[in-house]
Amino acid sequence: MKLKRKKQLVTTLNILDKPIRFNPFVFSRTFFLWALLGIVGGLIASTYWIILEFLTHKIAFFDGWQVIPAMTISGLLAGLIIYWIGDPGEIHLIVNNIRFNKGKLDPKNNPSMVLSSLLCVASGGSLGPEAPLVQVTGSTGTWLGKLCRLKGEELRSLSIAGMASGFTALFGAPLGGSLFSLEILHHKHAVEYYKAIIPALVASSFSYVVFAVIIELGLGATWSLTAYEYEGVFDFAYAVLFALAGTFMGWVFIYCTKFFKTVFEKFTIPIYIKTTVGGIILGVIAYYLPLTRYFGHHEINELIGQSLPLTTLFAILVFKIIAIAVTVTSGWRGGFIIPLFFVGTTLGLIIHHFFPSTNLTLTIVSCMAGINACVTRTPMSTTILLATLTGFSYFIPILFASLTGYFLAPRIPFIQSQLKEQKA
């Protein structure tokens, strides 16, 4: 034992005797690679958003009964793009490739993803641009990594950093976007990718600056909720109770999606027929309930600003969940995080009708956190994202709500690739 300690001491002294190469900075050359990826990600996200806004304004010209044929034709065109160019996959494929395909996201899926998602989101589908942006910027990270001859965890980290840069650009939360890119991979194994957190933070920060300069989106709170003031320890109990309602709606959404998936899979029909049928259903829902159209980024403020009767709120809640489920299962492309926040907002307004003495902001944000953490299993990033998007500065109640949704989520995750074990 003494001999072993003596050898360790000698080794330590030998190390100390060696000349030290002085480096005044922590960052290395790879910092500039992460920064470049963030800048490119910000430019990609800005370009996508500008085109999306342009198309949305053009297609929004068709309202009233015209929304039905407009969304039907958009569904048909999106389906034809996927049929001809190739299926770009969904968030399940992204997670699966990061975990099991050595962190590689294939850029060849980007043309189909970009074109189909632009049509789907701009025409009024109930999915947002976050998933397409994550796919495109993540695959850009893979491409840049291969260009620099990176392998293994370095390549995977760059792909994750690319995902974070795209997600951050839309939400305006570098820390939340970075954590989301890790949490979404798997609720048990995200720690395996801890090395990617610094690359993700750097890329997210640069992407945020570029996107904010060009678009000015994500500067300050996005949704106009009244300022929250802490009223006592019972606020934590309220947050958990409201999150229970949000979690319940998360379960409803998951099973509603499974139902429509079963229905669409019963018929062996081309993808463009599925997207066309989806467009008809979404158009009819949007005709009767216009607030259910689009993914909810602007509609959340409209919902909060109007004093809608309880029956209308219930109708919006039910049919928005159906609209998201149909959008997901009929082949339309996009992400479901902001739409779930819209559902949480509607649920919060309904609860406030029955319990008007409770804080409206706390009610809405807790429902948002509960439903999103239940479906995506991302409690940490959900907390930070909602604090940023709503201006909810005292975010601990949001954390309680997010953890409630996370721990009461179904055993089998909605994103099925989160369930698979790492292959040998």
Automatic annotation (TrEMBL):
Q: Which InterPro entries match?
A: Cl-channel_core, ClC, ClC-type_chloride_channel
Q: Where in the cell is it found?
A: Membrane
Q: Does the keyword Transmembrane apply?
A: yes
Q: Which GO terms describe its cellular component?
A: membrane
- Mark the transmembrane ranges: 31-55, 67-86, 197-224, 236-257, 269-289, 309-329, 336-355, 384-409
Q: Locate the coiled-coil region(s) and give their ranges.
A: none
Q: How does it sit in the membrane?
A: Multi-pass membrane protein
One Pfam family linked to the record: Voltage_CLC
Extract one GO molecular function annotation from the record.
chloride transmembrane transporter activity
Q: What is its main location?
A: membrane
Q: Which UniProt keywords apply?
A: Membrane, Transmembrane, Transmembrane helix
PANTHER family named among the record's database cross-references: CHLORIDE CHANNEL PROTEIN CLC-E, CHLORIDE TRANSPORTER
Which protein are we looking at? H+/Cl-antiporter ClcA
The species this protein was found in: Bizionia paragorgiae
Lineage here is: Bacteria, Pseudomonadati, Bacteroidota, Flavobacteriia, Flavobacteriales
